[in-house]
User: Fold these one by one.
Assistant:
Number 1:
Amino acid sequence: MKTTRLLPENREFRINTIYCIGKNYADHAKEMGGDVPKEPVIFLKPNSAVISNGDPIIIPAMSSNVHHEVELTVLIGTGGKNIPLATAMRHVAGYGVGLDMTMRDRQSEAKKAGNPWAVSKGFDTSAPLSPFVAASSVPDPHALEISLSVNGTVRQRSSTEHMIFRVDVLIAYLSSIFTLCEGDIIYTGTPEGVAQVVPGDVLEAVIPGVGSIRHSVQ
Ligand code: MG
């Protein structure tokens, strides 16, 4: 069972479903050679993919091109179905920072073949995740600096203001399809600058005011 914590109370949450949003920043959609989506692109990770701050990211033997994607993460505190846009933010317990590690070579093959992304996105250690800070301590989740450094060099730096589909829209959309539950997590998509990691790299993902995580690559 994977759990996470909501600060500052240190309340424990059992991690339920992990929803991830693809191509939610226009500049990243462009660098992937795709159009900006007209509705959110959704995929899932198993909760067995989650690792905590400091745990190593392990590159699977089946891939020779694993990429980092730094993302704002959302912890759902109160579930619901068909949640209206106007009240969607009330369902957020907290915010964190995560990495959506991706076997880019396997994902490209899957895209070409029309196959799912479960393997390329859901492998063990593919979901580094910080603890969450209470939503009440984040004045505006769409005005957060977000960055990812590799060995001390910044590779990704942007602002959550550039998200195409914002947190309330994502919650309303997801809950129109899936029943959202306490402990669900949403990875809200990555800005531009994704790139390969190799064994020995040290990754640091930071959202000031929200959290930071540091992981070595093996
Ligand atoms: Mg991603």
Note: Residues 20, 69, 71, 100, 187, 189-190 surround magnesium ion (CB under 6 Å).
Number 2:
Amino acid sequence: MAKYRIAWLPGDGIGVEVLEAAKIVLDRISLDAEYLHGDIGWDFWCREGDAFPARTIELLRNVDAAMFGAITSKPAKAAEAELAPELKGKGLSYRSPIVRMRQLFDLYICLRPCKAYPGNPLNYKEGLDLVVFRENTEDLYAGVEFSPVPEALATALASLSKPFGAFKDLAPGECAISCKINTRKGSERIVRAAFDFARKFGRKKVTLVHKANVVRASDGLFLETARQVAKDYPEIATDEANIDAMTMWLLKNPFNYDVLVAPNLYGDIVSDLCAQMVGGLGFGCSGNIGDKLAVFEPTHGSAPKHAGLYKANPIATILAAKMMLDWLGETAKATALEQATAAVIAEGNVRTYDMGGSSTTLEMAQAIAAKL
Ligand code: NAI
Ligand code: MG
């Protein structure tokens, strides 16, 4: 029996291609693993009315980790239109599998390392090495939303004194509400994860990203909790920044930052910025990590316009596989894989289109495998 059981979830579009590439390097590195295919994505929504079928959820309950490619999502009306005829009009509604997965398995850490590998022509600046910890289960992504707003909620809001009075004459259909829910537990565990990481890897500073001066209740709780956690790590410097200012300072003085930790939405935003500074979507890798399960993925989507062309850059996914090896405790293999990837980037002979070259997805994977 293999040492690890890994769920393998290619999904849609280039998700299939980049996972095929990741498999080439994992096979080369001889990870003692059994890879178990899981159905996920648009086809399953169209044919079965569920993009994340129960059998795939069951599979995830019985594995050590998972690799996920990407999925296609479409707005509600377009999703309904593509359902198989016998499923139409049954009140099925599309929900993002990855958001469901994060909540179902309590994958509360979204870890996004953003490192500028030397010689990558897409680097904003050489030497960048940022790590983003994004809370992954709550905040504005909690999924508690109202559109139209139920009568009872509208009445309750109208009855509040200022500033809600401004909304008192709105008809229910003229207003929508998305709840930003942050808990002490959710804030504490993501901030602790960031500081534990900083301690383990000798990082110097953790920046708490928020907007507590305006979003006083929910970000206030996040910030207050984070400051409390920071006291347990006196050897690590703590810094605070508003999300809006953060995006400016990151571009201006990127070397002032090290580890960043943020609630879900701000973490999503700031991690895309950081990923772009080290090469963009072809380099953005991500781990969705809980106490029992972790799911690793590139941050990009299914890129329908490139699907089937094998031109997407697989490095984001290969670096996600490297993160999985680290999480499994296969540190030597993880380091070897990262070094091989860095070597191919530095040599510059094999480059996908986004890097200015014409190598294919699988040629990039083969070049990295050849260095192992
Ligand atoms: P996308 O990330 O799929 O692609 C945007 C563009 O970025 C592509 O057209 C391509 O030019 C470039 N790109 C993406 N990945 C690349 C790679 N590996 N190498 C080189 N270039 C790359 O975002 P888009 O087009 O907004 O969304 C397409 C679909 O993917 C939508 O249905 C969306 O809902 C879904 N999506 C899924 C995600 C996931 O599965 N985690 C995340 C983001 C979007
Ligand atoms: Mg994003």
Note: The pocket of NAI (ligand 1) is lined by residues 18, 70-73, 98, 281-282, 300-306, 312-313, 316, 354 (CB under 6 Å).
